[in-house]
Amino acid sequence: MKRIGDLPDTIPIFPLPGALLLPRARLPLHIFEPRYLQMIEDAMKTPTRLIGMIQPRELPDGQTGTRLQAIGCAGRLTGFSETEDGRYMISLTGVSRFRLHEEISGFTPYRRCLAEWAPFGRDLGPVETDPDFDRSGFMELLARFFAAMELSTDWSSLKEAEPELLINSLSMLCPFSPEDKQALLEAPSLTTRRETMVTLIEFALRGGNDEELLQ
User: Fold this and answer.
1) Using CA atoms, how far apart are residues 46 and 200, in angstroms rounded to an integer?
2) For 118-134, what is the mean pLDDT?
3) pLDDT digits (tens, 9 = 90+) for 169-180
4) Other Cβ atoms within 10 Å of 180 Cβ, number
5) Which residues pair with 51 in a beta bridge?
6) Taken in order 66, 102, 180, 89, is the CA torsion positive or negative?
7) Phi and psi of 127, rounded to 5°?
């Protein structure tokens, strides 16, 4: 799948709050609901094995149902195992972001949509670079954030990771709000995503609303 024309018009979608997938990154998922077990089985029968990860968003007071964000990211099913009790452990590798053009109703227990790929043609291109990336300064800020949040990581791997892998993996793994993760997903470039992440980290270190300062 190296061209937009290789991508299908219709994809199954998996609405999951706080779950972020980015191009060329990997997302592990634990699947146990019957409708999503069926989705995985159906996706494995298709040539592309694509599943669209997309976040739900809150509806105004008084409305029912689940509205979806306008933009998600499709991943190719690249890892699969089944547990003894029938659950699936899968891995998705990000292929391209998409704009949700229209939901398709009926025929399947899971949701599907018509996907618009054209706005994200660069996702199918080579690995992105970040010419202004200050790794040492970024790592110092990240260390403060991890200490404040009491998070642990393999620092040697982070220090050696290429900028795209580093920024995208942290965007997916860090405990940002669903709204913040959506902003990271929609960032038009790797540089913009890194700048957005720095802003989010600095905001968290200031205590967010300045009422609960992180020590």
Assistant:
1) 38
2) 94
3) 999 999 999 999
4) 20
5) 75
6) positive
7) -55, 135
CA-to-CA separations, 145 to 169, 175, 203, in angstroms, rounded: 15, 11, 10
Residue matched to tokens 């899968």: 90
Distance between first and last Cα of the chain: 47
178-186 and 190-205 helices, crossing angle to 10°: 150
CA distance 24 to 26: 7
- Pair 92, 53: CB distance under 8 Å: yes
Burial of 60 (C-beta count, 10 Å sphere; 0-12/13-18/19+): exposed
Q: Which helix (H) or strand (E) holds 190?
A: helix 190-205
Q: Cα(152)–Cα(162) distance, rounded to whole angstroms?
A: 20
Rounded-to-integer distance, Cα 183 and Cα 45, Å: 33
| pLDDT value for 211 | 45
Measured CA distances, 17 to 49, 53, 128, 167, 176 (Å): 22, 10, 26, 20, 11
Q: What pLDDT was estimated at residue 208?
A: 64
Three-state DSSP at 79 gives: strand
